[in-house]
Amino acid sequence: MRVLLPPSEAKAAGGDGPSLRTAGFGTGPLADARAEVARAVTAFCRAEPNAAITALRLPASRAQADLAANTTMLDAPTMPALDRFVGVLYQALAPATLPLAARAAAGHTLFVSTGAFGLLGAAEPVPDHRVAMAAAVPGLGGRSAPTVLAAFWRTRLASALPDLLARTPDDVGEHLVVDLRSSDYATVPSLSGPMRATALPVRSLTEKLVDGHWIRRPLSYQAKQTKGRLTRALLLAEAAGRPVKTIDDVAEAAESAGLVAEPRGTATAPTLDVITRWNPTT
């Protein structure tokens, strides 16, 4: 099993790992692209801070703090991606409370889609930063005009994804890919073509009792929370010796976390709805 997660805007500060300038960007297929984006973002934030706030879509309430984080991205301390992201999904996943075996499973199972780094393994070191996939950054590919990061990463990830998700060269395409990415990230890249046969897009919904009827909605906060609960359940299943290989295995893990799982799609293109039921009268 592999699980693709969205990032979170909220991030833990600090870290005790070596900086990217010291440790580099690794030797994987995305190393050069990651370095290019990090250097371009850093240069942009230093040279044109006001333009960077707009182009990187930094919210007014945190613009200066996020700008400072981006400016020092190359020299700031790092921590594992799974600990850096602390938004609603990651609060529900609660990585600090995972059993050791589940945390170890996360290291080779979970991947976070990000605008700054393309795709991060859960254990990969990452500094504090705020760079959305929809952000536009000048200086990429030798171009002075801004490039939207989704376009920059889409082709690079499409070719690199099978190797990135493989633990060894022999298991490329041998695992179920549970896709929990949000809409801004789900097409970077799309799990189409040969990968669709092993991909399971998951839609997270909330069901609320209104006037005696269950109304189903994709509410943002609860949807993120549901994805975090599902991810935790998947890791616990793997750690308990119950490998997640099929849509039925994912559904079983969801139900173990108190969620409702409804398979959709077809045998060759399955999808799964995972629902949190909320009854305000109970």
Notes on the protein architecture:
By secondary structure, this protein is an alpha/beta fold. The protein has one domain. It has helices at 20-23, 31-47, 49-55, 63-71, 81-84, 88-93, 100-109, 149-165, 220-239, 247-256, and strands at 2-5, 78-80, 110-114, 118-121, 125-127, 136-137, 147-148, 177-179, 199-210, 213-217, 260-265, 270-278. The strands form three sheets. Strands 1, 3, 4, 8, 9, 10, 11 and 12 form an eight-stranded mixed β-sheet that branches. A hairpin with a 2-residue loop joins strand 9 (199-210) and strand 10. Helix 2 (31-47) crosses helix 3 (49-55), helix 7 (100-109) packs across helix 9 (220-239) and helix 9 (220-239) packs across helix 10.
Largest sheet descriptor: 8 strands, mixed
Count of β-strands: 12
Gross geometry: globular
The string of secondary-structure elements, in order, is EHHHHEHHHEEEEEHEEEHHEE
What is the strand content?
15-25%
Domain unit count: 1
Count of helix runs: 10
Task: List low-pLDDT spans.
Answer: none
User: What separation lies between the terminal Cα atoms?
Assistant: 36 Å
